[in-house]
Amino acid sequence: MKKSISFILLAIMLSLFTYAEQPKCEFRATWLATVQNIDWPKTTVTSNTTREQQKKELTDILDKMVAGNMNAICMQVRSLCDAMYQSSYEPWSQALTGTRGKDPGYDPLQFAIDEAHKRGIELHVWVNPFRVTSSGTLDSSDQLWQHAGDWIIKYNNGSFKGQIIDPGYPEARQYVINVLMEIVNNYDIDGILMDDYFYPYGGTTTEDADSKTKYKPNNVLDVNKDGDTDDDWRRANVDSCMKMLYDTIQVVKPWVRFGMGPFGIWSTQKKAAEAYGITLPSGISGLDDYDVQACNTVEWVKQGWVDYINPQLYWSTNIAAQDYNVLCKWWAKDVCEHFSNQLPDGKKVHFFISQAAYHAYDGYKGYDAGVAEVQKQIDVNRNNLSSGYTGSVFYNTTAYCKMYDQLAQSHFQSPALPPAMDWKVKTTLEAPTHLTLSGGTLSWEHPTADRFTIYAFPIGTDIEVALTNPAYLQGIVWGKSMNISHISDITKTTIAVVTYDRFGVEHGVAVYTPTPDITWELNGGQLPKVEVPTNQELWNMFKADFDEFYSAIYPNYQIQEYPIHAVLELTWPKWSNNCFATEFITGHPDWIWLGEYIQSIYGKITDVKIWRYNLYAFFNASDEVRYESGQVINVSCGDFTTAGRPEAWGSAYLAAKGAITLPLFVDAEYTLPNNLIHPEGYPFLGWWDNATFIGAQLYTIPAYWKGTLYANWLGAPTNIKQVLDTTQPMEIFDLMGRPLGNNIDQLQGNIFIIKQRNHTFKLIK
Fold this sequence. Notes:
By secondary structure, the protein is of the alpha/beta class.
């Protein structure tokens, strides 16, 4: 990634811990017009130098998209039945080299996809389905004549003087689908946005007489009851093309988002609206799609043949005849929400709005406020569709690039995700694994996914809350790594990597908290590198202590040779009455005997306290602390300081003496009572089997560790979430208090003690 991108990301991070009132999910894109070189390319390819300049013009645009916290670009790749990509049907676009059909020496679409994805930007192709020329006639030697010459017709109706492929021919509709599906099949695009060129501006009278004679049936439904069914037939032709294309995409690549950008006015015919059971927006007049182009967007939404619509509301919020406020609300409520609620399988047709960014600079009526008018329209968009399915697509990219910094400072302060097509998702993806940081680059692994979302938030922030906050969102990553060196204070930051499918749905979350440089100390001196003992070595180290302790409680039972990993793999039970034998251990057969033996002594134990204190004594004390039938038996306190396990005594002693009452369960956090002080000076929190240890926010503790068992404090009552000082040295011990080093990830067992100055935690993985 270029240095400019790193600088951009740094700017984003400077406001990392501030929150802007904006949606987390919002489509933000521009129309990148290539026809007549409106937006790109400005330089035509005549040499290797100009080719590289043409590429740089595109990457410069993408850099501004990143800086403006945009998430998609809609690149016009087929404007006049030509191609900004390698096509087997149609010639290279004139916009690339100045000559139609001339190879530019590279594949612009593939280049754009690669560069957009590098920057976390989706690449949607913008296509004009049937337009051949916008003026004049196509040269008879053009490649297009070989494929579609029989269906090309000419118009000269005042509003349009050019040629189109006639949608009245079934073969012509299939040809357009074949052309577009070649793009879908050959390129890793994220969406298709179809423009409004079906039948031409100005309407159609006799231009399509041949196709009408051949293919118009006699029983066409007169929808508007005006005695003229020609436009009804034309609308049916376009409807057929849209349905065929949508259905074909769903079979091949259903994650490719298919949308339509129609006129901002659907129809002005009251009867047309009545046929759909809706009313027209009040006070609106002007050129409409329904009559002029036979483009019936309402039908497509009703049938679910599009994933989103993107009406071109190229007017202002203060012009009555084309009032942006009125039209936005009508499209959002009366069309998208109304018909989406009738679609099966939970489908929702999303509503994104095309906005005339260019009018902020051309003196167009109603845009006296310039960029402020565009900002006002974004507010209208958000207010009229609260479902999270809204967005803006600015026409054109050149105009957007003039205002991107203003929008980034106001309405787009943080990144956003394109709204998810969650109705298409049938499976859940697991979280990334093996998060590692090396040289400023965070890497991870995943067996199937290739797209992820990244969040960065202060240590201690609740993860679920953080993932809803757009201020913490860093964007989308294609691949399995991200450079996070732009984060200024990594020692205070948690990074979350979320599996993000191609439908825009987030799945499993993995959390990484970078480890700062820490000087480890033991007994006042620097701790040398400690080799982690093998399981057998650990067993040999504390077997004698274990035998002595166990025989003191159950003198008539013969201790067997149980490997250390069976001890360390202990999983504390869920206290479900008499199901102890199956829940006590993770399933290791060597430990079934323990539950059976205790059951044989006490029968079916239903008192939680009996289990709690017997197990507590068994695994955590060399003194005998037992509860039977609600009574304390044989409590003693020995020389716990030399045993290396001071955390094991305070609560047992005081609970047995009745000095305190420990709660059975604690959720998330608990404040120590003032009297929780052992006579020898060791305060103790005690054991709560369902408390959540905040290991995901603490250095050296992996995110997948759960459960706080023990904690040892000196001093005043302390909140469980404010215990570990990550700037101070730590020591790690085994179950019996033996030193194990300082890297939890390298340890083979499941239960450890982490000690830091006066704080001691016992962890269970």
